[in-house]
Amino acid sequence: MTRDSLERGRQEAIERYGPWTNSNIHLGEGVFTIAPGANGMAEARVQRITQVVLDAVGGSVEGLRILDLGCYEGAFAIELAMRGADGLAIDAREEHAGKTRFARDALGLDRLEVERGDVRDLDPERIGTFDVVLCLGVLYHLDVPAAFELIERVAQLTRGLAVVETQISLTRREQVSHRGGAYRGRWYAEGNTPGASVGNERSFWMTRPSLLNALSSAGFTSVSECLTPVIPDLAAYRDHVTLLAVKGRAAAPASNPDVDFGAGEWPERLPVVAHPAQGGRYRVLERLRRARGGGLHKVFRKPGT
User: Which residues pair with 206 in a beta bridge?
Assistant: First the structure.
């Protein structure tokens, strides 16, 4: 496509769906969905998630099948499709799906399908399974039980791994139940912004332990937090996490058949413990614990102490 045709198509898409607000995609010939140089945290997130996925799958997504849930304006799905992945991008708002379709068509990415749909209505029998599922900025816009059901559905849909980016609650003030499990967090009142929820007025933000327990209960055997590549402005938020969840097989140590701690559960509250070498506060706490018959775990002690 020529620069003029790209620019005309972009303007027509803006007239129909509104301007791009989050994804500055280079369509070719110097034409960007937003503008040249209009890059910020959104583009840094694309680079970061791409790096995480590439590292997790061995360096290439060529021929892999990737699902992008709540794709917004399509930047993640388009980036991975440009690298050879077969993708499906889904968003509940037609303006978001429409912008994603336009960028896909402008870039000639026949391997990327785009659908308007609600992530709460996913049908595994219809859409199949995927090597990687992206669940970015979706969970914290869902209420109960939808948030837990989506985690379960993501585990059904992925053959390998999922990347989950979400807000978490810093308080344990509210408790909800799902399939016999108790989860803590807080309720969040949704507004009427382009990225807000569709169909629910409030959402449930899980605490970090509750989110980890929900992922484990859904069938993910290991969960790691993605800390690098770092986005300093994003890293400053204590209530924001990016997790790599892997659906594998539970492994018992071959070197010690008596060891089987199972999946276990993250407790909502952990004691403040550190090596006494960290400073006076921890030396005092260590002496108190020893006086009560506890203290620093022997694996951290010097011989003879």
Answer: 185
pLDDT digits (tens, 9 = 90+) for 107-164: 999 999 999 999 999 999 999 999 999 999 999 999 999 999 999 999 999 999 999 9
CB distance 107 to 28 below 8 Å: yes
H helical segments located in the chain = 3-17, 41-57, 75-82, 94-107, 124-127, 146-157, 208-218, 232-235, 280-291
- 102 forms beta bridges with none
Q: What is the mean pLDDT of the chain?
A: 93
Burial (CB < 10 A; 0-12, 13-18, 19+), residue 58, is exposed
CA distance 234 to 232: 5
Give the single-character DSSP code of 169.
B
Query: Residue 178: its pLDDT value, please?
Result: 97
Rounded to two decimals, the pTM is 0.93
- Please tell me the distance from the alpha carbon of residue 135 to that of residue 275, in angstroms, as a whole number: 37
Q: Are the beta carbons of 119 and 138 closer than 8 angstroms?
A: yes
Closest to 57 measured CA to CA, from 203, 142, 197, 159: 159
Q: How far is CA 238 from the centre of its chain?
A: 15
pLDDT at res. 262: 66
Q: What is the CA radius of gyration of the chain?
A: 23
CA distances from 255 to 251, 259, 260 (A): 11, 9, 12
CA dihedral 15, 16, 18, 23 (to 10 degrees): -110
